What does this fold into?
Amino acid sequence: MVMATKKMIHHVHGVGTAGSLSEQKDFRWHWEWARLLKWLWLAFVATITTITADLVLAQDLEIVTIDGTYQGQVLYIQNPYDVRTRNFCVVEVQVNGQALPSNLYKSSAFEIDFAQLGLKKGQYVEIVIKHRKGCRPRVLNPGALVAKSTFELVSFTADENSIRFTTRNEISEEPFYIEREEYGKWKVIAKVKGKGPGGFNTYVVRVDHFSGENRYRIKQRDAAMGWRYGDIILVYRSRKPPVTFYPQRVSTKIRLSRPAEYMIYDSYGNKVKEGRGQEIDVRDLKPGVYYLFVDNKKYKFLKK
It folds into this structure.
């Protein structure tokens, strides 16, 4: 009887050991899955956090653009410290579309040596600086990118869709600015990079003329005078019909006779709308007298 009892006990003990091993395997399997799921969750959270941070940073950035002509000088830039983010102001610098190494601007001031970037004297250069809001980098020697203007305006003509001008005696790729007289003031309407030395250079710029008389002139930055103007003022009379509008007493929309750029001012001289199109929604304007500037003309209308 005793022997049988021992064997029974031994048999029961053996079954219990097998069950424990199975439970251990199940536990280890669940534990490994739990670790994997935890790792995947942490990776997902880290990815979302990174994307969110990048989006916030992108929304929290402003851009400064500086352009001119390389004169053989280094450009010095002051880079303030942003207390809010505990970082320096500048987050990215590009020269002619080429991003510079980030360690360049991890200090309170830095320099851009264009010679190390392969630029030659007289070559056009554009610097794009992305910086955090609330602080702003400052170029300490902006004159380093301004060349002496030496161009001569040889001819200046126009047709219904464009203006054309020819120069000579350029010594750099300093841009030309085309201005048009609009509502009694000169306004820059186009910018074209200079072609530099090489005899005669011709430029064609597409423009949208006003109806009737248009007056154009050309200018270029100059290291000594600030701006230097070509000695020809182009007067071109377009065959386009004048832009008209209706109604003069309006509740919802003003309709132009053709698409055009426009501005609306209130009776106090404040600009309240501007844009381009053929219909102008004025439902958000308060009742009163307003002035419509379109096609280089000024009109008065009443908002009901």
